[in-house]
Design brief:
This protein is α+β, with helices and mostly antiparallel strands. It is built from one helix and seven strands, in the order H-E-E-E-E-E-E-E. The strands form two sheets. A four-stranded antiparallel β-sheet has the order 4-3-6-7, with no helix packed on it.
């Protein structure tokens, strides 16, 4: 009986060590791909620039997006209410938004592409 238990335990130990070694090789391969300079990061293909910040009368938004079906720009106030929305149809453009009617405070500008949040920037409005 002890021989069978010893055999089962040794099989378990060998299997466990093989699985751990196999997992290390997989992780090394994944790290190699993460450091590979030829891979493209989807989020780096899209740019969003806001100026001037802080804004008083106008806010300019420059954007460049690639490989998208649907893109949307939204501005939120500090409690999360959407105060501005624009569907982006051009791949690259400059938008001028009048912010003189907005109250002083902190706002957020978000870029959503194909339903996924890509980038969010802070905006300060100060008249």
């Amino acid at each position: 009986m002890r021989k069978y238990i010893l055999l089962i335990i040794s099989i378990f130990i060998v299997s466990f060590s093989f699985a751990a070694e196999s997992n290390k090789q997989l992780n090394l391969f994944e790290n190699q791909n993460a450091n590979d300079s030829t891979t493209l990061n989807f989020y780096e293909l899209h740019t969003l620039k806001l100026y001037p910040n802080p804004a008083s009368d106008y806010l300019y938004i420059d954007y460049e997006i690639l490989y998208v079906k649907e893109a949307k720009l939204q501005i939120y106030n500090s409690i999360g209410a959407v105060i501005y929305t624009k569907e982006l149809t051009e791949k690259q453009d400059k938008i001028k938004i009048t912010v003189s009617d907005y109250k002083n405070g902190l706002y957020f500008c978000s870029l959503r592409i194909d339903g996924k949040l890509i980038n969010t920037r802070k905006i300060i409005i100060n008249h």
